[in-house]
Amino acid sequence: MPAPRYHVIVNPIAGTGSAPKFINDHVCSLLERLGLAADVHVTEGVKDAGRIGRDIVLERRETPPADGVTRVIVGGGDGTAHEFIEGVLEATRELGVPLGRWALVTLPLGTANALHSTHFPPDAAATPIPPALAAEVGDVSPEVHQALSSLVLALAGAEPRPLPITLTSLVRADGTVAETIPDHIVLSTALHAAILSDSDALRAEHPGLERYKLAAAANISVFFPADVELVPDSRGVRQYDPRTRAWVAPYSADSEQDGKVRLTGPFTYFLSTTTTPRLEPTFVIAPTLTALPRDEGERTTDIVILRPLRDPAVRKAISEGGDGGAAWAARAKEVLGGAYQAGKHVQFTYAPDGGAVEVAGAGDVVVETFRCAGFTWRPTDDAHAKSHIVCADGSLYDIPAGGEARAHVLGSDPADQASSDSGFWVWG
């Protein structure tokens, strides 16, 4: 069998703009020294990585790789990978060709490098370079070594790990699909999506990180009107219990029917992730991904939810004619602060008197954490524009008026026609 061939995507504007030099100095030169073929694709604008994905699908259709695996080195951040995966899925769907097997190498060359950092934390020991590769890699700095970790595993012949993809259909009021979007890092609505949306609008006036703080302050007290339906996998919908630190049957659902769990809003936080427990190096929003890892081949997502009307302090404020949003803002800061303490927030329960939260106490759970095959997010007020925003790997989309967002993990729905050997993998 011939030596594997790599496609190298270079996003010259990702992160600090260092991708072209890094790839030239440390990636293409390494592949050349190893005698491996590489096709370099340079993005030329926003979403151009999707065009590259489509081009590779067309090439793969005419000349399939000898071993059935298309190898791609992503020289950018999470956004570049998102655009590329979106382009591949759109092309296979439009052309009616099998998805096949795709294996990705990550390089932390973007602004957000959540996937790479999840597999190769900056404070973890560097991935060992096998003796057979050491001479070719050369004497590199610890930072370069860490950045090359995914590529080293690929070149060393390690098995890549599955990269679950969530597909979200934005559905119109008449039931037709307006758009289908993938994500491989995080899908969110409510606070997380609203912060990203508002921060984009503030970019010109506040180009630095301050705009995220301003956007968070503007949305921390907002209640997002929506209803949610959680879709079971073969094990049903499971909910995390902080007292047993295990998955149990749902205990905070408003109703259940045919295995589907229904949650009534409003919501303040709603985030789904299949791969990444942390959104920042110390902000561990979904610790269950690592504390309770999925079985091999399990196609599920972990969902982190906050519903303000479950808070005794908020209900008390509203009943007394006060501002429920103000009462919730203080609680939200307390709860989300726990995410910076190794994901401690998922252990919180409400104190009966509405005071400070407790850890695994007798009261109701604060953060509702579920594991399931997918969900439907259905805004209940068309005049509330922010409840219609969906964020997929940092890209923003809008749910049509009267519509909904239906999300499922690729392969969990028979309509996907996905086999166990098709989809995306990543060296990590």
UniProtKB/TrEMBL annotation:
It comes from the Eukaryota. Residues 1-160 form the DAGKc domain. It holds the Pfam family DAGK_cat. InterPro entries: ATP-NAD_kinase_N (IPR017438), Diacylglycerol_kinase_cat_dom (IPR001206), Lipid_Phosphate_FormReg (IPR050187), NAD/diacylglycerol_kinase_sf (IPR016064). This is DAGKc domain-containing protein.
